[in-house]
Amino acid sequence: MNHYTVGMAGHIDHGKTTLTKALTNIDTDRLKEEQERQISIELGYAPLKLNDEMEVSLIDVPGHERFIRQMIAGVAGIDLVMLVVAADEGVMPQTREHIDILRLLGIEQGIIVVTKMDRVDEEMHELVELDIRETVEGTFLEDAKVFFVDSKSGVGIDQLKTELAHELAGLSSRDASGAFRLPIDQVFTVHGQGTVVRGTVYEGVVKEGDVLEILPQKKSVRARQLQVHHEPRQNGRAGQRVAVNLGGIGKDEIKRGDVLAASGHYEATDTIDVSLHTVAELRYSIKQRSAIKLHIGTAEVYGKIVFFDRNELTEGNEEMVCQLRLDEPIVTRRGDRFILRRPTPMETIGGGTVIDAHGQKYRFGEETVRTLEQKKAATPEEQFQQLILEKKLLTIKEASNSVHLSEEQLAKWMDEQAQFIILPTGEITSEKVIQSLRESIEAELAHYHLEYPLRQGIKKAELVQSYLQTYPKKILEWMIEEGGDKQWLTLEGPYVALGSHSPHPPEKWAKRVEHVMKAIQEEDLQVSPVFEHIQKQQIPQDLFEELIHYFHQQEILFQIDDKLSIHAEPFKQAIREMKEKTNESFSLQEAKEVTGLSRKYLVPFLEKIDKLGLTIRQEQERRWTDDYEQEWLYKR
């Protein structure tokens, strides 16, 4: 079963509602006011039975100029339009405006239906058709077939149905593979059932029991029951006219223009980049940041238009890229069609497509225009590649929403390309992003090692922080761990270094540092303060702390108090001798006899080996621990 939506368009009182009833046997003027005044005010809907392979929803839109917003909401999601013209009046102002709106919304398929044929003779038939042909010349209706019908007597209705079936058979049914989205055009309550919303499904599939959300409010709801033209269904899909009974929300919390959507797949926005095509004739110029009224899906929102290559739009039939900054958030995505109108004096400015649903602030000038033109021309795949270079890291949902490809289509294309990386978190990045980040990290660490050769490396938190403005934290942390696994990075405690780096004194001072180490080693256990040795070698004072930290970190020296540090060799030798010459436990006096140290050096020495876990102090004695056999103690 293929699902289609057919819309009516045309001037007021040209017989759209009567034609709808002739085709469907349903009167879509359901409001008391509509029936009393004999004009359509709200959108009307009816199922149209053509054959067993098609399920068709017919939308009857108001023809009066005061209800143009309802008309736009009605035709925004249609597959084919029937342009209705009364034989006794011919083309009228709203006929022309409706044609303009249909063209701007990108409608490509249509049939022209001349109603009230019983009111005119054959000669008038020819004149009306000629008038229509002149009006639609150069539009998508230029080659459309013209049918003359009398909706009340039924003359021509069967032929029209046959042609509708033929035209629709040549169209592809709506793709239902994307995330579910239904712009709401009706909200009401049913006694005993609660809140019901209705609309045409733009994309995806909805099932009974699905957890959805109302946007832009981000209100979570559940689809309790579904109907398609008053018939219960287990699911609804793209192209169908669906009513959804919602749990978890009241009628007064929803309005026309809101969107019912799959949870987590769509984000509201108030800044959109667009490609705008203006109507053939503008009655008034449009100045920079002029007030506009945007009609998109079933929503209508006020805002401002921002140009990047001009300060005023004066000519009609222009095509340009620009930006719309809205007073309220909407839900849209790339490729959606829209209509732009002037709030006052009321007129249609133009229409077009959304280039980017989440526009940024750009500079005025040709560079921005070129960027937006490139974005407009890009295929979904090219958009994705560019997007991932900009964002660095995306979820499959974010990517799908941004480039108007379903998650399945995107995943399949990524598999074919083999140039993308999926992190353990499930998020996507590209090899280009990773390579660029690796080169940046390598360059930064190489510079850091050159400037601070004595240091183990840079602290991981510091390295991550330095890139947070350009890269997401997740990708930075993954990159560092990956670098450690592949050994182009060395990870030691909180420090990160290049795999090829080992801390060393600056070449300029390397010889003098050797003299410092040798002098301290020769002092054995009764050492002078380290900084005195460094001073004697006339090493710059700004290296003192770095150098002392290097000695300790590399275990060249072992610090026994704030000022004193013993060279590793005599320090280890003294521990080994003590172990050989004492029992399982020993006293301070025994340690003094073995080492020959005065109390000034002995107490901090013993406290140091306590800290190293070699001994444990028990009252007046110390006991050797099982950790005495540590490997470092026997390294030369």
From TrEMBL:
Supply the CDD domains for this chain.
SelB (cd04171), SelB_II (cd03696), selB_III (cd15491)
**Where located?**
Cytoplasm
Q: Which GO terms describe its biological process?
A: selenocysteine incorporation
Source superkingdom: Bacteria
MF annotations from Gene Ontology: GTP binding; GTPase activity; RNA binding; translation elongation factor activity
A Pfam family the protein falls into:
WHD_3rd_SelB
- Record's keyword terms, sorted: Cytoplasm, Elongation factor, GTP-binding, Nucleotide-binding, Protein biosynthesis
UniProt cross-references to InterPro entries, sorted A to Z: Beta-barrel_SelB, EF-Tu_GTPase, EFTu-like_2, Elong_fac_SelB-wing-hlx_typ-2, P-loop_NTPase, SelB_WHD4, Small_GTP-bd, T_Tr_GTP-bd_dom
What does UniProt give as GO cellular component? cytoplasm
Ranges where the Tr-type G domain occurs? 1-174
NCBIfam families from the UniProt entry: selB, small_GTP
Function (record text): Translation factor necessary for the incorporation of selenocysteine into proteins. It probably replaces EF-Tu for the insertion of selenocysteine directed by the UGA codon. SelB binds GTP and GDP.
Q: What is this protein called?
A: Selenocysteine-specific elongation factor
Organism (species): Halalkalibacter nanhaiisediminis
